[in-house]
Amino acid sequence: RQEDSAHAALLTLQAELWTLEKHAGANEKISQQRRDLWKAESQFAVLEEAAQRRQLSAQEKSLLAHKDETLEYKRQLAALGDKVTYQERLNALAQQADK
């Protein structure tokens, strides 16, 4: 299980790096909800890989059984979080322009 945990951390960082490189604009910010989505996607990838190598616990099986609903919910949160982050950035720029 420690190996699964380490692999999950690696996948999360790889996903975050990929997205940061993709959104490398100076004014772009990434919402916490988007980061949470990446983390969940990585955790599910690790669980699916672990299922090929060992017997999953009841809790792990339950998590995988609800994967699609969980990820869809997190995608919706990420989209909304991105909009909030973008609006906050616009508001900050507008305040700077008013000064």
UniProtKB/TrEMBL annotation:
Protein name, entry field: Phage tail tape measure protein
